[in-house]
Write a structure and sequence with these properties.
Order of helices and strands: EHEEEEEEHEEEEEHHEHEHEEEEEEEE
Radius of gyration: 23 Å
Strand content: 35-45%
Number of helices: 6
Largest sheet: 7 strands, mixed
Distance between the termini: 50 Å
Shape: globular
Length: 379
């Protein structure tokens, strides 16, 4: 249960009916050409992560012709831009305010009113759209550092904006940030120098598997929509993976390795249960499934995200942290298979759910120095 203070003038934009709800919201504003209005809204699906009323600025651009398949119709164009810089464009019928077209340029999304021609979105099309979105989120480093698992130390200057659900990571192991963090509503823009180091952990000091979570750890063993640890199939997979484990670390490490070995990496954007059933998923589903499995065993685990160096560029990525004992979190990457030896090629930028916000500001990285395991620094 979540309580959110409101003023009574907010719109409710349900993610399951986003196109319908946006069209109703825009149609109700009755703006003149060139007029703007700031609108407050709530998305119920993210209130548990982002406990705030959101805002967007809606502008009526004017009348223009809009193409619908092989036909054209006159429409009123509106543009909505939220605090993160995400822009949406909507075209409404001037008479009955029916939504004719709705686009989100940054996500390569385009929804068009049916013109009688049958159209289907195939899985391959969804994979293509996801690939375009992911490709846009890559930041070139202009430097080849070799295999990502071997990066032992990394120092770089960074300019990047991120959507942070639960805030910036305050206790990321082996990471220090010096610079400015400009926090605006949903978006935080970072400008400074980040240093990361490799984390090596052999399991020493881990609590036994039978140890109960401390009061501070209880939130990290709860079942949620993202981490359905009460799902029987997830519990079964975790129990089988952790068979013979006696400590938190042994059980968590075994679960993460199971995900790495059994869940094929493919861009899906799905959740934990879907990843388990389909045996495929990208870093997000793989991390969600790992956390759900680990929590089903009573072990604290949490989601972390940011950047990962891969072949000369940095891309958006998710991984997990395991609570081996109160106050000590060990990073693990079920996607890359880094368990017990976590490379400095990971740069934590948000705790919990989050994402890069390429439309909110510059995306720049300048690698100042790095070292590989067993080698000295390269500048």
């Amino acid at each position: 249960p979540t309580t959110l203070e409101t003023q009574g003038d907010e719109y409710l934009l349900d993610n399951n009916f986003l196109v319908d709800h946006y069209s109703v919201m825009v149609a109700s504003l009755n703006l003149a050409d060139g007029e703007k209005q700031v609108v407050r809204f709530i998305v119920p699906q993210i209130v548990s992560r982002v406990n705030k009323v959101l805002t967007t600025t809606v502008t009526r651009v004017g009348a223009e012709m809009v193409k619908l398949g092989n036909t054209e119709r006159k429409a009123l164009k509106y543009v909505s831009q939220d605090d993160s810089g995400m822009k949406m464009e909507l075209w409404l019928d001037p008479e009955d305010r029916t939504l004719l077209r709705w686009t989100v340029p940054a996500q390569q999304s385009d929804v068009v009113l049916s013109t009688g021609e049958r159209a289907e979105t195939k899985p391959a099309d969804m994979d293509r759209l996801l690939s375009k979105f992911v490709e846009k989120s890559y930041i070139p480093s202009y430097l080849e550092m070799g295999r990502l698992q071997d990066v032992a130390d990394l120092k770089m200057r960074i300019k990047v904006c991120v959507l942070v659900g639960e805030g910036l990571p305050k206790d990321a192991p082996k990471q220090v940030f010096e610079g400015k963090a400009d926090e605006r509503s949903l978006v935080t823009c970072l400008d400074g120098v980040i240093r990361t180091g490799m984390t090596v952990y052999d399991g020493k000091g881990s609590l036994p598997l039978t140890a109960k979570a401390s009061k501070d750890e209880e939130i990290f063993i709860k079942k949620t929509m993202d981490f359905p640890s009460d799902n029987p199939e997830i519990g079964k997979a975790a129990t089988e993976a952790a068979q013979g484990a006696t400590t938190r670390w042994e059980a968590a490490a075994a679960s993460a390795r199971w995900v790495h070995d059994h869940i094929k990496y493919e861009l899906t954007g799905a959740g934990a249960i879907n990843a388990l059933n389909q045996r495929r998923g990208d870093c997000g589903p793989q991390s969600l499934l790992s956390i759900a499995m680990i929590r089903s065993l009573g072990i604290p685990a949490r989601l972390v995200g940011g950047l990962l160096y891969v072949g000369g560029k940095f891309g958006q990525h998710n991984w997990i942290e395991v609570g081996v004992r109160p106050g000590e979190w060990i990073p693990v990457d079920p996607t890359t298979g880094e368990v017990g030896r976590f490379s400095a090629s990971h740069v934590a930028l948000w705790s919990g759910a989050g994402a890069l916000a390429p439309d909110a500001g510059p995306m720049e990285i300048d690698v100042l120095a790095f070292s590989r395991a067993g080698a000295g620094f390269t500048k």
